[in-house]
Specification:
five-stranded parallel sheet, 8 helices, binds thymidine-5'-diphosphate, Rossmann fold, alpha/beta
């Protein structure tokens, strides 16, 4: 087992259907195979409370307004950091999270129109000022994402039209947010899963080496 001189946090981001969760699983296996003490987690749902919140957020059995929705994601995040992320980083583990704070900036900020500044402030507070060392963005071009939604139909239902507009805002949001961020690795989500993993794995290893944490 390779021991890191400090914990490393990696977040994975991208729109729904970008292949992000498959990449998270594959990357976890590849990094663990390198002898790195790696754990895979996710938001929402990385803690016991988070699993309950995830059910509320997904099933939408009760009405949840936009602000309440964000605060539920933030509550999940606070519990996730307190219960899992911070202890694992203190144990010098490599933590991979399928989504994290940037998802809220993009989905609740760019997507739903809530204040991005406020979201970033609350995220920072929930995360005890800890930021991911590396963020991997699984990029899918707007045209491909839209094709997946419309499936080349001429007439769209109002639900599909709404989803299409929302997805367009999400992609625009991710691109704007990640445009000049040096901690972000962009991988091509259109490639086969093993190639996406190879791209991400090579970049992560290079970045970890640059951080000088492997003894
Ligand atoms: P996702 O990881 O896509 O779940 P699954 O892989 O099972 O589809 O995340 C669930 C949804 O929650 C997804 O549509 C994105 C959304 N989400 C937000 O809107 N804000 C957030 O802060 C997070 C973490 C997720």
């Amino acid at each position: 087992m390779k021991i890191l001189s400090r914990g490393i946090l990696i977040s994975l981001e991208g729109i729904d259907g970008s292949g992000k969760s498959t990449l998270a699983r594959n990357l976890h296996i590849h990094l663990a195979n390198q002898g790195l003490d790696t754990i895979l987690t996710r938001e929402p749902g990385g803690s016991a409370l988070g699993k309950k919140l995830r059910t509320i957020l997904q099933e939408k059995e009760v009405n949840v307004c936009d602000k309440a929705e964000y605060l539920l994601f933030a509550a999940d995040r606070a519990q996730h950091f307190d219960e899992l992320v911070i202890p694992a980083l203190n144990e010098r583990k490599l933590v991979i999270s399928d989504r994290m704070a940037d998802s809220s900036v993009v989905y609740q900020g760019y997507g739903r129109g809530l204040s991005i500044e406020l979201i970033q402030t609350i995220n920072t507070w929930a995360m005890h000022n800890i930021k991911p060392d590396i963020t991997i963005y699984v990029q899918v071009p707007v045209e491909i994402a839209l094709q997946r939604i419309t499936k080349r139909k001429e007439m769209l239902s109002s639900f599909e039209r709404e989803r299409l507009d929302f997805t367009q805002r999400l992609i625009g949001g991710f691109e704007k947010l990640f445009h000049q961020r040096r901690d972000v690795i962009i991988v091509n989500g259109q490639l086969p899963a093993d190639e996406v993993c190879e791209q991400a794995f090579d970049a992560v290893i290079k970045n970890i080496q640059a951080l000088n944490v492997i003894s």
